[in-house]
Structure prediction request, 116 residues.
Amino acid sequence: MIKKFRIKKPDEIKELLEARNVKRNAYFSVYKGPGKKGNFRYAISVPQKFGKAVRRNKVKRQLRMIIKDLDIHENIDLFVIVHARSAKLRFRELEREFVKLVKRHHIKFCNPEVRR
Prediction:
């Protein structure tokens, strides 16, 4: 994804965590906050408990693709924390669980073809 859609500064991530607008399931924690830059932005965190760097990078790539396919146009910031339990999921299951969590946050996405 384009750099303008990424949250990189620790202060911005800390603001999202302090806002405490969070939805969780067994596989993810998704923090939502108001957008600061006028467009949708996100950050993904995968702890070391998840596994070695290859596995952590793979799940981050998969989540980036899922988020890109959702085609979110709202002015919000998201911070996604991946839990170790999601290591057992295949891509379609990962996508389904993430989309369910995004829907619980009442985030509107433009792509109706994303699996639900």
Q: What stands out?
A: The chain has one domain: 3-104.
